[in-house]
Write a structure and sequence with these properties.
The structure holds 2 protein chains of 2 kinds.
Chain A (H helix, E strand, L loop, with lengths): L2 H7 L13 H20 L6 H10 L1 H15 L7 H17 L4 H25 L4 H19 L4 E2 L3 H8 L1 E4 L3 E4 H19 L1 H11 L1 H6 L4 H27 L1 E2 L7 H11 L11 H21 L5 H29 L1
Antiparallel strand pairs in A: 1-4, 2-3
Helix pairs in contact in A: 2-14, 4-9, 4-10, 4-12, 4-13, 4-14, 5-6, 5-7, 5-12, 6-7, 6-12, 9-10, 10-12, 13-14, 14-15
Chain B lengths: L2 H5 L1 H17 L7 E3 L2 E3 L1 H24 L7 H17 L7 H29 L3 H20 L3 E3 L3 H8 L1 E2 L2 E2 H18 L3 H10 L1 H6 L4 H26 L2 E3 L7 H11 L11 H21 L6 H16 L1 H7 L29
Antiparallel strand pairs in B: 1-2, 3-6, 4-5
Helix pairs in contact in B: 2-13, 3-8, 3-11, 3-12, 3-13, 4-5, 4-6, 4-11, 5-6, 5-11, 7-11, 12-13
The chains are: A mainly alpha, B mainly alpha.
Amino acid sequence: MTTVENARDRLGTPHRRIPVRYVPVLVTLSLVVAMFTAGSLHYPYFGTGQVFLNLFVDNSFLLVAVVGMTFVILTGGIDLSVGSVVALSTLLCAELAGHGWPAYAVFPVVLLVGATLGLAMGSIIHFFEIQPFIVTLAGMFLARGLCYAITVDAISITNPSFTRIAGYSLALPWELFLTMGAVLSLVVVAIGLYFLHLTSFGRTVYAIGGNRQSAVLMGLPVARTEVLVYTISGTCSALGGILLSFYMLSGSGSLAVGMELDAIAAVVIGGTLLTGGTGYLLGSLLGVLVLGLIKTLITFQGTLSSWWTKIVVGLLLLAFILLQRLVFHRQAVSKQ
Amino acid sequence: MSAGLRRLSWPLIAIAALLLVDLFFGHAFFALRMQDGHLYGNLVDILRFGAPPMLVALGMTIVIATGGIDLSVGALVAISGATACVLISDLSNQNSVAGVLGAITVALALTTALGVWNGMLVAVVGIQPIVATLILMVAGRGIAQLITGGQIVTINSSPYNVIGNGYWLALPFALYLVAAMYGLTAALSRRTALGLLIESVGGNAEASRLAGVRSRSLIILAYAFSGLCSGIAGLIVSSGIKGADGNNAGLWFELDAILAVVIGGTALRGGRYFLAGTLVGALLIQTLTTTIYSIGVPPETTLLFKALVVTAVCLAQSPAFRAKLVQPRRRRVSTGDRPPPGAQPPERAVDVPA
């Protein structure tokens, strides 16, 4: 992000002033705007503020998990355990609430479990130099297996301290509202933005993803940062699980199957390079909105079946990966 | 003991240990009985239900040998079954052998073509394998459901039924398919230079290309082969349940296949592969699953055991782990903490193989 780089960053012609690294995020932003506009023009009740806010309400847990995933992917890693840690957290919430634990006592325990899992995975990845892919795969098996070791059934949450919090919502002007979960997820995004862009920890995350060896040679705290990134992802997944348990008011080991794929898709659609080092947390937020909009559009359309979601998400993944290839390939060539 | 057997000693010991557990928990576990000229029993079941994972793992081994990975295999299993079943259910006579063969050909051609697509993304466009195959992993299940129209298509076709439920010379027919594919692959890759070339691409694709190896074609070939193997596995799965389930067929296959390859001693970094190891790895996973069913633990807890196995195997293969925790020994024949099969020279890997 030096001036030299900025000068090279620009798109082909010199009078255009958009740095290349913003292009994928801007494409995602225009996609969100285009999808929302198209929906509003087509369906009479689509173009309301509440439909837009519901994107946050219905995807709050995904958004929180995506924040953690963005940190991991920015270092060039990947976390496949997200979905099962979310499921484990919902189950823990439901199980502990069923034993009469009040909500404020449950949360620290659940967050601690998620953080510990993340810490363990991060340590194995860093200190034993095993690929993140396979370590988090083991973590995925472990968390799901723990769920089923607790119980194979779904438990519904009736604990009053939980149902009361689940009922909270933030009233906004014009009769709009956001649920507790949506507000919390936006707070997490804000915290993530702070750490990623305004602290030396965030700079180190980008540095590791950009070039690990350089980061080591520069004396950056690579070990601490890498382990911490997976710990953050584990904690975010646990918080996502808590939000999901509020949203569903139940916990089960078979919830959130394949959610890690949604999270990865959101990060990629948000313009983050899966090799690490390039990308923005706000892009990931937009990625979640794109996924949410696809689902909302398919619901409004009514006749399209749910599997079209998967196909459209796959096509979007392809489009964005090709776009990144195009944009960043040119950059890489010019650097050489 | 030959070098091959020695490399396989750990997974083989694990299988033996599992079978020992079975011996304690249920004496009937090893019972084999002949009925109508067919062999039945838990041991036969391990082989029979292990057939689809063994095939998928075979394709995965070749892809991993080129330094890649194929996450789309589970979705391809679903697509192949869906295509074959939909085509057969449209036949006026579901028992026509020609019609069934036609459906099988179309299904296998489709999954092979999708494998070529994966290979093109990796070799021509230059996308990381994990990402390139992730696309089809996400979209593939949607495609399978699109083909079946979201329904579970059931069929009643006796020629198709042979693939998953048929017997030949007392053994399940699917086993012969597995044996044929493994035999063919071993012959093609070890009796010709093909295996060497694949390993050289996995070692360093760019250096191989400069040395005159056609890296791109070989990578595309590897993914196409993986697609074909997944396609055959999909036929066995759908024939076994006499129908196609776009949502659940082949679920978690990619993970089991990667696990089998890793257990078998093929390093995820590429450049080496070991077909017999993969076969034993897949058998180990299936033995574990069958054992857990037979001793009455909830089957879902298999995942816990798998997590432990993956972690243990990966730690054992990690040069950093051995350097930190195990005394480095130079004697090649020490049996205790011998580097497991396919162990890499202790160089520090910095980035994911592309």
